[in-house]
Amino acid sequence: MTGRAGGGRRRGPVVDPDAPVTRARARIGRWRDRLLTLAWMALIWCLLWGRFSWGNLLGGLLVGGAVLLFFPLPPVTFGGRLRPRALLDLAVRFVTELVSASIHVAWIAVRPGYRPRGAIIAVRLRVRTDLNLALTAEAISLVPGTLIVEVDRGRGLLYVHVLDVRGPQDLADSRDRILATEGRIVRAIGSAAELRLLTAPAAPPGPASRPGPTGSVPLTGPVPPSGPVPLTGPVPPSGPVPPSGPVPPSGPVRPSGPVRPTERGADQ
After folding, report:
1. Are 149 and 220 in contact (CB under 8 A)?
2. Per-residue 3-state assignment (H helix, E strand, C coil) for 207-258
């Protein structure tokens, strides 16, 4: 079905999303993704056993089918495209970091009397899709010396444990290295919109934020004062308060001079 828009411009065919052909294509796409996931799980199962055989392949298919049936995974969409040159750069840089980090961790292990310090940093990714979060977290965890502790999917945060931290500069270098890994992954398989997110400037921190050990932590309540607080009312006393009027006696009062008798006492 075609039509004309304002100004005489022709529009393309209008596709009904509820049409039988569209529903059939979506159903075929879902089954294709499930079959690919099942095949991948079976391959991983054979790799875990250490050898390929018909028994391991059948066991992997059964285990993968049970996982997909009883623990369905959320759908992961892919809207980008593969770029061979960026993929080659990603592979070369990953192998280089893997070798250098392995040598560094091995030197720490055999260095006598050296006790490395660790830290946990929070890194906010620029592309917050599930696929980018998963691939970046896996690429970071495979490199010795860095380990994903937690992933905040809603805010796109990765909490990473880094090894051998000597100062703030090491924390900044680790954060830059993680963001560089994310950038190489997006350039290899990301879409045009995701590539634009890599060059977008970072959002400035809000007014109600204070620097924390891993970045700017937003405050959800009133900010506590950092200095003396001016008083707007009377100052409560810090010691005993002198009386402002006569104090009633707490026992019998002895006269300080001669007492004159009353008239009745004089007649007696």
Report:
1. no
2. CCEEECCCCEEECCCCCCCCCCCCCCCCCCCCCCCCCCCCCCCCCCCCCCCC
Tokens of 240: 């005993």
Kindly report which listed range (32-41, 70-79, 144-153) carries the lowest average pLDDT score: 70-79
Q: Is-contact 135 118, C-beta < 8 A? A: no
Q: Report the distance separating Cα 138 and Cα 90, nearest Å.
A: 13
Dist. CA 75–CA 134, nearest whole Å: 13
Residue given tokens 């700017």 in the structure block? 216
Calpha distance 265→262 (Å, rounded): 5
The whole-model pTM stands at: 0.55
Placement of tokens 């100062």 in the chain: 167
Distance CA 95, CA 34 (A): 31
Could you read off the pLDDT of 107-116 as tens digits, one per residue?
999 989 888 9
Span 55-111, pLDDT tens digits: 888 999 999 899 888 888 766 666 778 899 999 999 999 999 999 999 999 999 998
Q: CA-to-CA distance for 117 and 174, rounded, in angstroms? A: 14
Residue 154, both tokens: 């809603």
Q: Which residues contact 134 (CB under 8 A, 6 or more apart)?
A: 76
**H or E, element range at 147:** strand 146-152
The CA dihedral of 154, 157, 158, 164, to the nearest 10 degrees, is -160
The amino acid at 46: C
**Cα distance from N-terminal residue to C-terminal residue, the chain:** 135
CA atoms within 13 A on the CB side of 262: 2
Q: Whole-angstrom Cα distance, residue 164 to residue 106? A: 12
Distance from C-alpha of 38 to C-alpha of 68, rounded to nearest angstrom: 8
